[in-house]
Description:
Layout: E1 13-14, H1 23-47, H2 52-74, E2 79-82, E3 101-109, H3 111-114, E4 123-130, E5 134-142, E6 147-150, E7 153-154, E8 166-170, H4 176-185, E9 188-192, H5 195-203, E10 209-212, H6 218-230, E11 234-236, E12 255-258, H7 260-272
Parallel strand pairs: 2-3, 8-9, 8-10
Antiparallel strand pairs: 1-7, 3-4, 4-5, 5-6, 10-12, 11-12
Helix pairs in contact: 1-2, 4-7, 5-6
The chain binds adenosine-3'-5'-diphosphate (A3P) and magnesium ion.
GO molecular function, one term: metal ion binding
Keywords: Magnesium, Metal-binding
GO biological process, one term: 3'-phosphoadenosine 5'-phosphosulfate metabolic process
Amino acid sequence: MHPTPDSASSIGVPTATSAAASAFDVGLAAELAAGAGELLVKLRAELGFADRRALKDAGDRLADDYLLGRLAAERPGDAVLSEEGKGEQGRVGTERLGADRVWIIDPLDGTREFSEEGRDDWAVHVALWQRGLGLTAAAVALPAEGVTLRSDLLYDVPEARSAPPRIAVSRTRPPAEATAAAAALGAELVPMGSAGAKVMAVVAGTVDAYVHSGGQFEWDSAAPVGVALASDWHASRIDGSPLRYNNADPYLPDLLVCRPDLAEPLLDAIRGTH
Ligand SMILES: Nc1ncnc2c1ncn2[C@@H]1O[C@H](COP(=O)(O)O)[C@@H](OP(=O)(O)O)[C@H]1O
Ligand SMILES: [Mg+2]
């Protein structure tokens, strides 16, 4: 049973998810991501953009407190890995390493863009990792667009376009691999903030690929990758190996998310740069 997509807040159509995925977990992921997103939209309106540092800090704190509070209430037996969390719930925590169910959350991805007036490339990530199964539920809210993408909805891979491919990259640190891959494929680079916003631009068909390297953590990609994989988009490390989550060290420095037909050409081009 899948929730009916609400046309105002969701795109995509219901999809068959793996038997391991619980509709309740995906529903919670989407509710929490959208709920944190609403708080962040209000905060932006209240604080304004005069003090960007204060806005970023307040946003991180507000969304993290909300998500940790709701997860503690709704799923008290589960562990959490959060960018903002501290101690057992943060990057230095070890409790999650023995847990069977771990929520991997990025309360505010694209913090820089969140603090810039008029930008909508920022996101809230909520994913569930389960031992032996990997990512089984995921939601990415794009609050400034009023959209939440989720792993129980299908985001169809469109027909290949005849136009040159478009590759999303970090606005502030576009990796050399992406520049080289773009040159090899005659592709155009599209600078954008937030890992979540970039992966969602891929599954929405706005761009054809997202290439990142040079540093990132599990929370930056878990929920976006969970959404993309559930709809059969390609997601891997840039050497083609699988993305693995809930590692002792959550550093996960690179990824490629793209249309399946572009995976091999892009991986070949990236390999050529190494
Ligand atoms: N070299 C790096 N090291 C650590 N984190 C990085 C990184 N490059 C990008 N990221 C993180 O990945 C997210 C997307 O970055 P970008 O917009 O540059 O593509 C941001 O998450 P946060 O906004 O949650 O910190 C950013 O901090
Ligand atoms: Mg992030």
